[in-house]
């Protein structure tokens, strides 16, 4: 829409406009306001006409056209207004055919749809007119337009007449602007005094107001005293309105909006900016319009709506680029500042959206334009932000160069707050890189700087920071003294968030030096303060941040239900804001809840979801930490090469970005390397290894379960290595019924060299256990050895007590060991594989990977559970004769050939080899069946499976036993 009439200021004026407009549209005088006094029931309408063939009633709603922060709220309000007012209008003492809702808002599809639906479902024609609809009609009637918008002249090019500044004052005003732009506030103040002096002598009221206005800018920008600045701007706005100086009214509204924005007062900021836009559009102040659109983008950015912010920035940038091209001298300071500011904020929006190429491109452009015009404060801020970005992506050397340049510029302009920010960030980077001693010195220097220059707004935060550093260093008295000072400071300011953080830090102090009970009381008081703050806060991202703080506090108190409730609410907000970084950090906190609850399945599922979410971002601490956890998980699952990939990536990022858990990852990587070496031929052979198990449980029968778990934990690498290296055909039988396993293993005995029991049912993860161990044997595994001794009631043998984590194991393993001695297990060629399949959603994939590492064939009873990750290539039905002793002697050669064909199925290079290998097996089985003519056979399916892995096909084979005939 191009007409750009501003909505009228008062609701009654809007009703009068609608009355006159509809009289013009229908060429009548029958439209009038309904009971304008408001003392009697209005039945949901403001304007009406009962003229035959018109019979129309209108409800008028005056709202802000530019209140975009309230779009959803406004749409819902209009939706409900339409429903309610139409229902009320049915009680009017006269009939009507047409109901119109007229509003000074954008067009909302939700309300349009409702109007269309009501027109179909009721006897009335229901319409919704937005401001675009209304102003399109206004434009058709010049006399009406002149009556309500006399300032919009028919000749729209005619300049608005306003008081002009004398040349002497104009000259000094330009000096003020230049000096403020360059951060030369002392010179600016001298020029302001000159303006005031000249304005008084020349009796120029506009100059006097501008001098006050410029003083407010100095207080606002140099002293960061936004509150005092706003009071001055508001007073100046009143004076500009008395002068009817429309240009300065618009500019002051814009400045008030940006200053309220600096104070995080988003609703007030948007109100001022919307009014500035209305003035700018009405009086063709294009530059003020562009600046206000830019600010509106900043409001949307601060509320987390980055894409809308980018759209506003783009509109503003288009104007500045166009104006710059028109300016032949290319020296218009306002235009150049506008270009720089647009690129500056576009870069910030892309940073949140993780578009890092766009971030760097726009930051560089912003610095170029700020330097071109010599805006030193903005140059300093831009270089600070660019340095911060360089730190984030691990380019510390470049970051330090930019940060030092920013600090130098801040010093030039006496911007003490800017200098402090540089010092603080450099101290934090030293801490991040692990240079704790240097960081401690840098933090203390920053704290001295704060005290020296009385930077009150930073004092509380730094009292807590220095207190925490002293707490980490074990200084009981110093740390508490700083925390108590912070407590007094935040109470004085009535800063709830600061009070809550202080209580949290005092709880940490109590945990270390005081009592746990007092610490919990502190956290509960902090939660109450934050919950009170949450009720009053309107800024959406801040609400989410407070929810995280509250959730984390509940997690510390082990109240997992409340912690999860707050984390999930925060996650939903961040998802709506499309803030990937904060969604990821929230998921990480939710994972901590599952860890505390011992819910391993959810922990691993969310870790994988989180890894997928953060890959490709610059959230390096999370990428590394999640990779580390998944690496440990895969290691425990026996997927050593996958584990190594995860751990190597985690270590690389931890080293590159100086992450605080680098040493821990490095230690685990070394341990995995050592473990991978154990995949070489083991020190103990298979027979010696299993003898060791039976020696243990026979030595102390009363502790069989603990000893079996201990042996599984300590001997797992050797057992895995022995199974892997054992020659011949090995079956990996996935069942839960022990009797079926033993029966099946006996039927497979002629063909197998080892048949492994793998339980299909879920079982426990294990836990801390106390295990008796022979005093004469060397302890293996990661266990604490007690000096205490115990004695078996059965064998009377002495034992040391070991303490450590032992894995869970199913009852079938216990039953297998109890029902067979090693000689029997060896003769039947059976044993168990201690593989906990509980933690895996895709158990088939785990089985296939494990079988590949062990050179075994997986065997299932009756069916196989496929998944979306694995597709079936083909199935072959076969019969395996159940061999008796006499058949075995006459069919040795044929049995060996069947075994070779089955072993050949373990490693199929690609799909093209499948048919040949299946044919070989089929022919070998036919030859065997011809010789034995066995009365009993195992009916089974050979299932050939395919899995896409790193864009390549991976072929696996499994056997599914159907029945015995």
Q: Can you describe what's shown?
A:
The chain is α/β, with parallel strands linked by helices. Helix content is about 65%, strand content about 10%. The chain has a 7-stranded mixed β-sheet with strand order 11-7-6-12-15-14-13, sandwiched between helices. Strands 1-2-3-4-5 form a 5-stranded mixed β-sheet, with helices on both faces. Helix 21 (about 475-495) runs antiparallel to helix 22 (about 495-515). The protein starts with 10 loop residues before the first helix and ends with a strand. About 40% of the residues are buried.
| E-strand count | 15
Strand content: 5-15%
Please compute the radius of gyration using only Cα atoms: 39 Å
Strand order of the largest sheet: 11-7-6-12-15-14-13
**Spans with pLDDT under 50 lasting ≥5 residues?**
154-159
Compute the number of helices: 39
Question: First CA to last CA: what distance?
Answer: 83 Å
Shape: elongated
Going by helix content, strand content and strand pairing, the class is alpha/beta
Q: What's the overall average pLDDT, rounded?
A: 85
> Could you give a short account of the major beta sheet?
7 strands, mixed
Helical fraction equals: 55-70%
């Amino acid at each position: 829409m191009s007409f750009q009439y501003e909505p009228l200021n008062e609701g009654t004026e809007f009703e009068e406009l609608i009355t006159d407009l509809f009289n013009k549209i229908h060429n009548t005088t029958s439209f009038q306001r309904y009971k304008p006094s408001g003392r009697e029931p209005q039945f949901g309408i403001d304007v009406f006409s009962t003229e035959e063939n018109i019979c129309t009633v209108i409800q008028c709603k005056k709202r802000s056209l530019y209140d975009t922060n309230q779009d959803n709220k406004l749409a819902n309000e209009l939706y409900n207004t339409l429903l309610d007012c139409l229902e009320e209008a049915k009680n009017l003492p006269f009939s009507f055919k047409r109901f119109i809702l007229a509003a000074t808002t954008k067009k909302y599809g939700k309300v349009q749809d409702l109007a269309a639906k009501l027109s179909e479902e009721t006897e009335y024609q229901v319409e919704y007119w937005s401001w675009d609809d209304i102003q399109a009609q206004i434009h058709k009637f010049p006399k009406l337009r002149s009556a309500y918008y006399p300032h919009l002249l028919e000749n729209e090019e005619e300049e608005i007449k306003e008081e002009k500044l004398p040349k002497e004052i104009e000259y000094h005003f330009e000096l003020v602007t230049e000096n403020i732009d360059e951060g030369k506030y002392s010179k600016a103040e001298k020029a302001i005094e000159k303006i005031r002096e000249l304005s008084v002598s020349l009796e120029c009221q506009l100059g006097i107001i501008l001098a006050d206005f410029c003083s407010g800018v100095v207080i606002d920008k140099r002293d960061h005293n936004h509150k005092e600045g706003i009071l001055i701007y508001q007073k100046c706005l009143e004076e500009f309105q008395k002068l009817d100086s429309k240009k300065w009214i618009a500019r002051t509204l814009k400045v008030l909006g940006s200053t309220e924005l600096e104070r995080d007062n988003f609703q007030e900021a948007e109100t001022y900016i919307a009014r500035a836009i209305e003035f700018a559009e009405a009086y063709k102040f294009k530059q003020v319009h562009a600046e206000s659109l830019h600010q509106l983008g900043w409001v949307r950015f601060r509320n987390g709506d980055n894409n809308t912010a980018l759209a506003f920035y783009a509109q503003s940038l288009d104007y500045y680029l166009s104006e710059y091209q028109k300016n032949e001298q290319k020296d218009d300071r306002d235009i150049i500042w506008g270009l720089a500011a647009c690129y500056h904020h576009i870069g910030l929006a892309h940073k949140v959206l993780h578009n890092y190429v766009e971030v760097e491109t726009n930051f560089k452009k912003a610095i170029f334009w700020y330097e071109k015009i010599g805006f030193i404060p903005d140059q300093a801020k831009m270089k600070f932000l660019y340095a911060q970005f360089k730190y984030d992506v691990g380019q510390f050397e470049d970051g330090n160069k930019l940060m030092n340049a920013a600090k130098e510029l801040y010093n030039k302009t006496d911007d003490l707050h800017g200098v402090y920010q540089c010092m603080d960030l450099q101290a934090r980077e030293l801490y991040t890189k692990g240079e704790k001693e240097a960081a401690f010195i840098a933090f203390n220097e920053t704290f001295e700087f704060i005290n020296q220059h009385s930077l009150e707004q930073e004092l509380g935060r730094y009292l807590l920071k220095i207190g925490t550093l002293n707490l980490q260093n074990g200084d009981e008295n110093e740390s508490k003294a700083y925390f108590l000072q912070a407590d007094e400071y935040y109470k004085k300011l009535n800063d709830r968030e600061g009070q809550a953080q202080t209580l949290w830090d005092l709880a940490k102090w109590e945990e270390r030096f005081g009592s746990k009970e007092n610490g919990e009381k502190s956290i509960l008081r902090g939660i109450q303060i934050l919950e009170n703050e949450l009720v009053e806060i309107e800024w959406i991202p801040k609400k989410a941040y407070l929810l995280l703080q509250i959730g984390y506090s509940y997690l510390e108190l082990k109240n997992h239900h409340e912690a999860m409730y707050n984390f999930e609410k925060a996650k939903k907000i961040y998802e709506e804001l499309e803030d990937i970084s904060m969604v990821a950090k929230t998921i990480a906190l939710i994972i901590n809840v599952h860890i505390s609850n011992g819910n391993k399945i959810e922990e691993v599922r969310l870790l994988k979801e989180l890894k997928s979410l953060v890959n490709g971002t610059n959230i390096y601490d999370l990428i590394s930490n999640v990779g580390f956890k998944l690496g440990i998980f895969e290691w425990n699952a026996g997927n050593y090469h996958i584990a190594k990939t995860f751990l190597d990536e985690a270590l690389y990022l931890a080293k590159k970005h100086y992450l605080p858990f680098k040493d821990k990852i490095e230690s685990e990587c070394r341990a995995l390397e050592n473990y991978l070496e154990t995949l070489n031929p083991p020190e103990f052979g298979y027979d010696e290894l299993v003898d060791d198990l039976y020696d243990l449980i026979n030595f102390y029968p009363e502790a069989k379960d603990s000893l079996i778990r201990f042996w599984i934990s300590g001997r797992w690498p050797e057992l895995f290595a022995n199974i892997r290296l054992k020659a011949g055909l090995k079956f990996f039988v996935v069942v839960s019924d022990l009797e079926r396993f033993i029966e099946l293993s006996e039927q497979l005995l002629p063909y197998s060299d080892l048949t492994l029991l793998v339980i299909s049912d879920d079982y426990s993860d294990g836990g801390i256990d106390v295990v008796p161990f022979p005093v004469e044997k060397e302890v293996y595994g990661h266990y604490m050895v007690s000096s205490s001794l115990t004695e078996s009631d059965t064998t009377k043998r002495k034992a040391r007590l070991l303490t450590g984590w032992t894995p869970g194991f199913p009852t079938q393993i216990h039953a297998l060991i109890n029902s067979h001695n090693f000689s029997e297990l060896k003769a039947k060629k059976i044993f168990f594989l201690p593989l906990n399949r509980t933690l895996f959603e895709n158990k088939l994939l785990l089985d296939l990977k494990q079988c590949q590492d062990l050179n075994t064939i997986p065997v299932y009873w009756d069916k196989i559970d496929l998944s979306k990750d694995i597709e079936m290539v083909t199935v072959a039905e076969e019969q395996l004769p159940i061999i008796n002793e006499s058949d075995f002697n006459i069919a040795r050669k044929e049995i060996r050939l069947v075994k070779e064909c089955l072993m050949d199925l373990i490693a199929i290079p690609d799909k093209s080899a499948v048919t040949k290998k299946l044919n070989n097996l089929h022919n070998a089985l036919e030859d065997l069946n011809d010789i034995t003519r066995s009365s009993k056979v195992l009916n089974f399916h050979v299932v050939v499976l395919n899995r896409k892995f790193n864009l390549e096909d991976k072929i696996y084979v499994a056997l599914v036993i159907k029945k015995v005939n």
